[in-house]
Amino acid sequence: MDTKFIGKKSAAAGGWGALKSCGKRLLQSGMPISGARTMLKANQPDGFDCPGCAWGDPEHGSSFEFCENGVKAVAWEATEKRATPAFFAEKTVSQLRRLTDYELELNGRLTHPMRYDAASDRYLPVAWEDAFAEIGSILTGLDNPNRAEFYTSGRASNEAAFLYQLFVRVYGTNNFPDCSNMCHEASGIAMRQAVGVGKGTVLLEDFEEADAIFVIGQNPGTNHPRMLGDLRRAAIRGARVVVFNPIRERGLERFSDPQDKVEMLRGGSTDIASLYLQPQLGGDMAAVRGMAKAVLAAEDAAVAAGLPSVLDYAFLAEHCAGFAEYRKAVEATSWAEIEDQSGLSRQEIERATDVYISAERVICTWAMGVTQHLHSVATIREIANFMFLRGNIGRPGAGFCPVRGHSNVQGDRTVGINEKPSDDFLDALEKHFRFTVPRQHGHNVLAAIGAMLDGSAEAFIGLGGNFARATPDSALVEKALRRLKLTVHIATKPNHSHLMPGETAFILPCLGRTEMDLNAAGNSQLISVEDSMSMVHGSAGINRPASPHLLSEVAIIAGIAQATVGSAVVDWSELADDHDLIRDHIEATIPGFENYNKRLRKPRGFHLRNTAAHREWDTPAGKASFSCEALPEETVHQRARKGEGRFALQTFRSHDQYNTTVYGLDDRYRGVYGERKVIFIHPADLTAMNAEAGDRVDVVGEHDDGIERIAENFRFVPYDIPRGSIAGYYPELNVLVPLGSAGRESDTPTSKSIMVSFRRRKTA
Ligand SMILES: Nc1nc2c(c(=O)[nH]1)N[C@H]1C(S)=C(S)[C@@H](COP(=O)(O)OP(=O)(O)OC[C@H]3O[C@@H](n4cnc5c(=O)[nH]c(N)nc54)[C@H](O)[C@@H]3O)O[C@H]1N2
Ligand SMILES: Nc1nc2c(c(=O)[nH]1)N[C@H]1C(S)=C(S)[C@@H](COP(=O)(O)OP(=O)(O)OC[C@H]3O[C@@H](n4cnc5c(=O)[nH]c(N)nc54)[C@H](O)[C@@H]3O)O[C@H]1N2
Ligand SMILES: [Mo]
Questions:
Q1: Contact call for residues 717 and 599 (beta carbons, < 8 A)
Q2: Domains delineated in the chain
């Protein structure tokens, strides 16, 4: 596709632009000069885990792996700005609500525990003990523990998350809505069905051996910048990178590595994608089915010509179940269907297939472009089917890599943040701690919101995150939070969720990753996290806490737990004081953590064994399992196409944000500066509407459930994107994501397939 209409003539991703942008953000964030020292300790053996993404850390090379967006994440936390009680005294909560997410967080780190005072509509300081006592008394006063919701965002450490789930289960519920429900839930479900583990099967080292890497529905240039380094090294070695993304993302086209002095001085860059395909939104299952069809056709041709097999028959025979049925399903899918749904031509799909067939070892990575659709589970099963055809799992350089979001979202699940816990895990908790665990499955994010809206939930506790902004139908969720008896937010910076107080409301400020956590005896406490490659490693902050009144997440959870359930089952304060003891409990209840405390202190930590990576299949069939579903009857783009003036909208991240945290108003790689209320759209779609670049519109939700959803005053930006598909930023567009639209099986909000239309605005 012609790219001449993309904003400014674009330089490669990374490079000097990345360095410049870092400098600017560091200045704006108010990070002290000592910040440089903070940066150097990110992702180092004796430092802290970068609070940015969940990409793995390399074994070799002790120098700091430069990452522009890691710098921003660290600087944002290590700021010198403070949201003190004076900040909260100055404005009523109603006034604060008028600020944008960006303006709110710019006020810096929270310093004191705060309690909402309805009479003055302000947050006032409160003593920790009083906060714990009041939270405990409201929680114990609910007539059923299932009337409370315990949210987790994926930054919480293994130690905090384990203690949290233990407290909540002693209290008596499995209500654990978490950010994963909105993120990689579909990956976990599909992979457990297909290969028996819900996690990626590759290590970082596999990227050094792969002959081809398929990157589907992911924008690593912005969201996992260190992954670009691995893709770049692979590309230089001659591995082929194949991208499926409706949008041409610059980082996937060309990358200039700030680590590479020669490349930086020459002003050069490396081509990343050798093939870049732009499917329609939601068209990936069809695209992958198309590749599978082309693989089977190549196999038939090889047989006819007496050439070696294209399929890995040994793997299929020894390890797989359901291949014959799958083959029939593929044969029953026509090229016409595949082309129509994927938006790709047969020739394009065959070119990708050629790369696949000529590669001995293939890795497939994916993220939100795959998981936030109606048919995400079926799509990921199809990716697995496709990979099975040539045995691309459980050998060096080959395997599945769902690239996680939050830096410890994977670890949180491992240690028990799960509304549908396994019986094995509950049995282990029960046996080790000797209490009757709740067995009834609890609420995920959408169920929790449902319960808050219908009045069956009365309390919300948030361990990090920004629930009201990250969830769909923001306006409704805000109302739901304000109807509760109790809202509690454990957080580092003020955000909009804090401004939706229930009858009684607290903001409890905690230490961040970059800060030292000293116990009563003055010993520094280590926490641990798990990355996308299932490596568990330690993290210890080095900065002085943002305020002397902060507590660690672990200490806050222990305080609430003590005030709510007492110490009959667990001595909370002992655990808060010594994280090694928490890890001993993890080791005793969760497989894979043998010698946790010892192995954690090794430089790169340790790897949690992944059965599928060893070709052991913990599935009902005891094999790697093919699925044989038909393609979705209709995808969002096919539906939108039927209606006049309708478009399929995806909501994604700019280069200057971390989820609901907006660092700045630029999206450098996409050529957008100083604004966020934009809609990326194909120029021919603009012409067809008699509209032009820069025109302003209201974006109107077309979910057809009788609810009016409008996002006001957005500006058109012409972009290289398929006709009929459009894109804009989360969280500004969350008002358009319907609560009632969720992925099959995954129950994930469909943030990448929203049907909308436009309404012209007369004035800006
Ligand atoms: N700097 C920074 N880092 C982050 C985050 C952040 O906000 N900022 N967030 C973290 C979190 S929690 C997560 S989950 C990850 C998110 O990482 P990503 O998944 O990369 O995040 P998105 O910005 O949502 O980008 C989705 C990509 O998928 C493409 N896409 C959308 N729909 C489709 C589709 O139907 N098919 C295909 N093939 N592609 C599609 C979009 O064009 C876009 O390139 O990043 C993590 N890392
Ligand atoms: N429309 C749309 N919606 C989406 C998505 C999308 O692509 N489109 N993506 C979804 C995805 S993938 C995810 S993961 C969710 C994210 O949902 P969340 O995890 O709920 O949101 P975040 O924006 O990451 O949370 C930011 C807040 O976390 C707090 N925080 C930061 N660091 C710490 C810490 O160390 N400890 C504690 N206790 N608090 C801290 C700060 O107060 C900050 O304001 O959003 C989802 N929502
Ligand atoms: Mo995420």
A1: no
A2: 13-77 (no CATH), 82-179+418-607 (3.40.50.740), 636-760 (2.40.40.20)
Contact between 384 and 195 (Cβ < 8 Å): yes
From the CA of 444, how far away is ligand 2's center (Å)?
Answer: 16
Digit-coded pLDDT (tens) for 60-75: 443 345 677 888 888 8
Lookup result for tokens 């058109």: 716
**Displacement of CA 724 from its chain's centroid (Å):** 26
Give the closest ligand to the alpha carbon of residue 154. 2
Amino acid at 165: Q
DSSP string, 387-435: HHTTT-SSBTTBEEEE--SBTTHHHHHHTT--SS--HHHHHHHHHHH-S
**DSSP E strand boundaries for 267-384:** 270-271, 275-277, 320-321, 362-366
In this structure, which residues have their CB less than 5 angstroms from ion ligand 3? 183, 405
Residue 472 CA to ligand 2 centre (angstroms): 13
Give the residue whose CA is nearest to atom 1 of ligand 1.
223
pTM of the model: 0.94
Q: What is the dihedral of CA 166, 170, 171, 176, to 10 degrees?
A: 40
CA gap 45, 43 in Å, rounded:
7
pLDDT in tens, 109-125: 999 999 999 999 999 99
Q: Give the distance (Å) from ligand 1 centre to CA of residue 226.
A: 15
Residue nearest to atom 32 of ligand 1 (CA): 369
